[in-house]
Write a structure and sequence with these properties.
3 domains, 5-stranded mixed beta sheet, 4-stranded mixed beta sheet, 17 helices, elongated
Length: 418
């Protein structure tokens, strides 16, 4: 194999002619002087269409390539402009780099792959680039991968909608996932009706009519927009949020019992046993240790109202468990009985909860019948929080969105040469 062929493989420069290799001993860098092959030259850098030569551009340019061991490598070539019929005078397309980039494709792909799995600071130190350059590369690779993937909103039938807080000060992004593929398909800054309307505007009227199921929480800004833009879609209430309501009601009952048993502002022997009961009451019965089971038995003997609240919480959880077991009709019957029980429980928190569930009854029944939940979205939110923590936060939501589309949207490129 010729030495030029070896360097083409090392630099990831296909369809390229290597003219010469130089090494700067003082700077410690290797420079490959190249030009595009005849079949790959003379094309517009934006659309790839052939066009006549316009001028020499700004002369020769360098692109940073993947390091060769401990030595930095660069690709150097002329960068003339062609007269594109669509875009006008544009720098030619080069086979080793994306348009407007200062790094080769292999370098960009390596940085994007690492950014998904580690912090920007670590990537910057490893690849010897600035912290902000990592974000710029992630955005560039994401845009290129999105264009190559085509229309990511095509064929949407069952979607889930939720919001994520990515920064202090009520900074949110709205996420949409496809239940059928399990991928994140759209995200944008904001948590309001205008943000969600922007998604359905992008989807278009025809494809809005093809959406059959939408899962979300009880936020009015989601239900109102979905009802207006996709009136034929079945709206399903996320079971996790319904059970979370019951957990909040149980905690309210626990606090009331604690306050009533303390006496005149002082803890008594009877109240001390309630102090550390939160996690016992929140935990699923099958996961309780022997000591926690003993505490629950003590609650049943000494505080029947609090035990009744715990039983109501578990009863509502069992309703959705029946759906997971494949008994949706039985789950709806169990929900009717639970509502009657909660209404007669003489616990104000659960009486209010029963009233709240009746308000969203149709959407909760849809969740039971179609076995839809926001579990996929909660998983996406957890992974997005991990990305945020690895990056030590984001100043710009679009940097997080670009990284999220790479990690969770199926756009992350493979490692170079893999």
């Amino acid at each position: 194999m010729r030495i030029t062929s070896v360097f083409k493989r090392l630099l990831g420069a296909d369809n390229t002619v290597i003219e010469k290799i130089s090494f700067d001993e003082q700077a410690g860098i290797l420079v490959a002087h190249v030009r595009p092959a005849r079949r790959a030259g003379g094309r517009c850098g934006r659309c790839g269409a052939r066009g006549p030569r316009f001028d020499r551009g700004e002369g020769r340019r360098r692109w940073r390539a993947l390091d060769l061991g401990a030595v930095q490598a660069f690709v150097e070539a002329d960068a003339p402009r062609v007269a594109c019929p669509q875009h006008g005078p544009t720098v030619i397309q080069v086979p080793w780099a994306r348009h407007g980039a200062g790094h080769t494709r292999g370098f960009d792909d390596m940085v994007a792959w690492l950014a998904v799995r580690t912090s920007k600071t670590a990537v910057g130190q490893l690849m010897r680039i600035a912290w902000r350059t990592v974000g710029a590369i992630v955005a560039r690779v994401c845009a290129d991968a999105s264009a190559a993937a085509g229309d990511r909103l095509a064929g949407l039938r069952r979607i889930g909608i939720d919001e994520l807080s990515y920064k202090k000060g009520h900074r949110y992004i709205t996420c949409v996932v496809d239940h059928d593929t399990g991928r994140l398909v759209w995200a944008a800054p904001g948590r309001d009706m205008a943000t969600l309307h922007a998604f359905f505007d992008l989807l278009g009227p025809e494809r809005c009519q093809q959406v059959t199921h939408v899962s979300a929480d009880a936020a009015d800004w989601i239900t109102g927009v979905v009802a207006a833009r996709c009136p034929q879609a079945v709206q399903a209430m996320d079971p996790f949020h319904v059970v979370a309501w019951a957990t909040e009601a149980l905690d309210q009952v626990r606090r009331d019992v604690w306050n009533n048993s303390r006496g005149k502002g002082r803890a008594t022997a009877r109240s001390k046993g309630i102090k550390n009961l939160r996690w016992v009451l929140w935990r699923n019965p099958e996961d309780l240790s022997e000591a926690q089971q003993a505490k629950l038995a003590w609650v049943e003997r000494t505080h029947p109202g609090l035990h009744r609240a715990w039983a109501l919480k578990e009863g509502l959880r069992w309703v959705f468990h029946l759906t997971r077991q494949g008994f949706p009709r039985l789950a709806i019957t169990a929900l009717d009985r639970w509502l009657s029980w909660a209404r007669r429980s003489q616990l104000p928190a659960f009486v209010d909860l029963a009233r709240r569930i009746r308000k969203h009854r149709s959407r909760i029944e849809a969740s039971l019948q179609h076995r839809l939940s926001n579990a996929l979205l909660e998983s996406v939110n957890t992974k997005l929080r991990l990305l945020t923590r690895q990056a030590f936060g984001f100043h710009n939501p679009y940097a997080l969105i670009g990284l999220a589309m790479l990690a969770l949207g199926g756009l992350c490129p493979p490692l170079p040469g893999r």
